């Protein structure tokens, strides 16, 4: 599979901006003082589906042939990718079926259905749902859209990097949550191409360290579980396409705990009045946990999504009050 380039990302801009506007990038004084770095937050939770992935879904659906659009699409998702495909399918008049784990975030499930997708809840986690989706595709002819192994998805998501560079061309470090790796791959590639001095630090959950451990080992390692509340990070098996790119793009990789992500959610709410989901807060958690890695630097924290349930937010507030 051909790797994306900066040219692919620039070509995706036209499709992305037919439907979306650039998201805000704001300086955060409180987090800057806390970490000793110059902290900026990229608010992808301001997207119409509350997460960054919608950029890629639009590009993928736009580029399907008329025959493939007629066949319909299917995908597996813990929520944000599914919302992206549902949003894009509605935009281009394509039938979508989305397979999600049985214990999926109910807010994300409802949002996918509200966008017109047929949602099937099966499997104990994302990877089981993905296998069910692949079987459905083989049996029906629906076009299977992988959550990460899709150059068109990455090309659309890479427009985040173009926006960061346009607003902050002298950025030193990008801290990027990593689940399947699509945002770190594409956003990091865009920034590093435009400014080779940029460092990209990936973040995973301690309870879902598949890519972290695989990078350390130099090969893909499958894990038995990914038991994190941060659904966007809950990947047991690295994907070959994005893993190959991550090996070249990431300058460092760190882990954060469940408690650290919860505390970061509170920090983001206190300092920005934005609600981040677990994966979205992982970059902030990493900045707070590892200030020595970013001290004195100009740093962008990618807030990848804000689809946190009210029940979970209430639980976090009570826990850390």
What's the short story on this structure?
The chain is of the alpha/beta class.
Topology:
Layout: H1 6-19, E1 25-27, H2 29-35, E2 38-43, H3 54-63, H4 66-71, E3 73-76, H5 80-92, E4 96-100, H6 106-114, E5 118-121, H7 126-140, E6 143-144, H8 151-157, H9 159-167, E7 173-177, H10 182-194, E8 199-205, H11 210-217, H12 240-249, E9 252-256, H13 258-272, H14 278-289, E10 298-303, H15 310-319
Parallel strand pairs: 2-10, 3-4, 3-6, 4-5, 7-8, 7-10, 8-9
Antiparallel strand pairs: 1-2
Provide keyphrases for this structure:
single chain; 321 residues; alpha/beta; Rossmann fold; 4-stranded parallel β-sheet
Structure explained in plain terms:
- There is one protein chain.
- By secondary structure, this protein is of the alpha/beta class.
- It folds into 2 domains: 6-52 and 152-319, Rossmann fold; 54-148, Rossmann fold (3-Layer(aba) Sandwich), CATH 3.40.50.
- The chain contains 15 helices and 10 strands.
- It has a 6-stranded mixed beta sheet with strand order 1-2-10-7-8-9, with helices on both faces.
Oligomer: single chain
Measured by DSSP, the beta-strand proportion falls in 5-15%
Give the number of DSSP strands. Answer: 10
Main beta sheet: 6 strands, mixed
- Secondary-structure-derived class: alpha/beta
Number of helices: 15
**Strand order of the biggest β-sheet:** 1-2-10-7-8-9
Distance between the termini: 48 Å
CATH class (first level) name of the largest domain: Alpha Beta
The percent range for helix content is: 40-55%
Q: Segments where pLDDT lies below 50 for 5+ residues? A: none
Gross morphology is globular
> What is the helix/strand order?
HEHEHHEHEHEHEHHEHEHHEHHEH
